[in-house]
Design goal:
This protein is of the alpha/beta class. It has 2 domains: about 70 residues, Helix Hairpins (Orthogonal Bundle); about 80 residues, Transcription elongation factor, GreA/GreB, C-terminal domain (Chitinase A, domain 3, Roll). It is about 40% helix and about 25% strand. The strands form 2 sheets. It has a 5-stranded mixed β-sheet with strand order 5-4-3-7-6. The longest helix has about 30 residues. It starts with 5 loop residues before the first strand and ends in a 7-residue tail after the last strand.
Length: about 160
């Protein structure tokens, strides 16, 4: 079974790449030094060595995860259909019950997991909005009940915003 593609905004991709570069550079050096110090410890402190090994394992797991995400990433550089809600869109909706307007960035779960604010494409609201157009009404079940949104505006998420 093929692994699913991960849809990332350009800034989200670049943020993950920067994190990977830091982890494989500076952080890897720090952990290697911790391990070397722990091995040379004349006191025979197993706890120090164990802590260094746990740090190394966590670092290796994080690096492997980021490498996997970036290898499977598909960068959203342009809006394939500006009239339809697609991943990487900033959507303005009007909550028909609360009489409030909301702006939501529709992002892949991986991008949200790594610190970007938005609505996951896999969340009920994200799934309900995909494929909709300006003027469409969307009913979606959320933990507080059913909400009805009216789509007011569809834009690409500006790339100049920090992720």
């Amino acid at each position: 079974m093929a692994e699913r593609r991960i849809l990332l905004t350009r800034s989200g991709y670049e943020q993950l790449q920067r994190e990977l570069n830091i982890l494989t550079g500076e952080e890897n050096t720090k952990v290697a030094e911790m391990l070397a110090d722990a091995r040379e410890d004349d006191q025979g402190e197993e706890a120090v060595f164990f802590d260094a090994m746990v740090s190394k394992e966590r670092l290796d797991e994080r690096v492997a995860h980021l490498q996997n995400v970036l290898a499977r990433a598909e960068v959203i550089d342009a809006d394939a259909d500006p009239d339809t809600i697609t991943p990487g869109n900033r959507v303005t909706v009007y909550d028909m019950t609360e009489k409030e307007e909301f702006v939501m960035d529709l992002l892949d779960t991986e991008e949200i997991t790594h610190g970007r604010r938005g609505v996951s494409l896999e969340a009920p609201v994200g799934r309900a909005l995909l494929g909709k157009h300006v003027g469409d009404k969307v009913k979606v079940e959320v933990p507080d009940g059913v909400v009805t949104y009216k789509v007011r505006k569809i834009d690409m998420i500006p790339e100049d915003e920090a992720s």
